[in-house]
Amino acid sequence: MPVEVREMLIKATIVQDLNQGNANNGNNGNDVSPSEEIIKVCVERVLEILKEKNER
Hints:
By secondary structure, the chain is mainly alpha-helical. Helices cover 50% and strands 0% of the residues.
């Protein structure tokens, strides 16, 4: 029996690391933190689900 989710709650906490700004001055900006990568993957998946839902 399929289960349908009618509501989804997404909670995110952003913590600013004051030392990170000083450490990244020499970097080219390609470093992505693990939490940013997780957020990126989640957003892509949600957009895929919404696209599939609209195509039906």
